[in-house]
Amino acid sequence: MIKSFFLLLLSSTFIHAELRVVTDFEGGNAEVVVLDQAAGRLRIMPALRGGRGWPCWWFLRLDGTSAGQKINLEVQAQTKPYRPETVLAAAWCQPDQAVLSHDGKTWKQTAKAERSADKVAVYQVQAEGPSLWLAWGPPFVPSTAETVLAEVKEKLGDEAERFELAKTRDGRPVNGIRIGKADAPRQVWVNARQHAWEAGGAWVGRGFVEWIASAEAQDFRKRCCVHFIPIMDVDNVTLGAGGKESLPQDHNRDWSEAPYHPEVAAAQKRIAQIQAAHGLDVFMDLHNPSAGDRAPFFFGPFGFERMTGLQRENYQRWMDLAAAHISGPLKVEPKYRYATYVKTEEERARMSSGWARAHGGEGTISITLETAWNTPHSTAENYMVVGAQLARALDAYLKEARH
Ligand SMILES: [Zn+2]
């Protein structure tokens, strides 16, 4: 009798293991609003990381689930301001489809969220075992970047050189890799993740650098040198903070004469050296846009319509090649957009793209790729396809001699 009582207790404990939200890992972020054990209902909002920008990214592990258990994940906007008197709109933390994983490694999109009148997105998900990972989008953290850089170096040997760009203000390494000969006639700089929440941009970067390291790019590597930084804002990515509009300085407004972030200062120094020694052909910055942008697009140079000669020719040729190559499933818009929401010349000059334009040569092009994250195609795999297509466009662009 007593024995069967304990067995009963044991089995009911097994069935009703306590659900627990865990976020103490790289990129983890969630503030629990409600956790209803009986109903399997979890309400979260992205946790505020004081001064570290937009509370939009979230990434958690739910422990204590059982195979087949249904969970209602509700996501609402953070209620506290991230800047004085500024609360972030809910749309930034509520993709139509979030992502889930049963092993913390492979991610797939959830079903489309249902949205309530009070601006809560509800994702219905199902566990397959004792843990369920849930995130805003496929996570890409410093350990992911480390794996990519190590694999590329391993594959290319002497054709590649890893480097530490800088240590962040919190002392974390910002790593990069140079592929091709340092004194190659054509030079390219690509960085991702100036905004920590924009994980999709880092996946595009991965697809890009893996194509550059592939057998298909053997000829490219003889002619061109690529300098690649997979994650610029390592601190905020590690902490699961949004980074955008962080205080005192957003990374992509920090490209001044006296940058606050050591990694921005170090990037400026290296780019200036490349320009002085060989001439910089292409500067590219990888981002993700807003929830309503359903296709990737490039931000081009302000005043493009008034440009003439070589500059205009190069920017137009880039756009044509990019549109031909980035052809789907995430198909790029065939015309530049302009970041006109940045109002002053002074602020525009402090964006990486503006800085690179000002410090490059007449033939340099400096562009920003914004890859759409709020579509059914916005998966890690498809982001990497965009990256490979971007690299093929670059290959085609650099096949023509520099004017
Ligand atoms: Zn951005």
TrEMBL record:
A molecular function (GO) term: metallocarboxypeptidase activity
Pfam family, one: Pepdidase_M14_N
Keyword annotations from UniProtKB, A to Z: Signal
The UniProt record lists the keyword Nuclease: no
Cofactor(s) recorded in Swiss-Prot or TrEMBL: Zn(2+)
SUPFAM superfamilies in alphabetical order: Zn-dependent exopeptidases
Domain (Peptidase M14) ranges: 138-403
UniProt key word Signal: yes
Gene3D superfamilies per the UniProt record, alphabetical: 2.60.40.3120, Zn peptidases
Secretion signal span: 1-17
InterPro entries for this protein: Cytosolic_carboxypeptidase, Pepdidase_M14_N, Peptidase_M14
Any GO BP: proteolysis
Family label: Belongs to the peptidase M14 family.
Protein known as: Peptidase M14 domain-containing protein
Species of provenance: Prosthecobacter vanneervenii
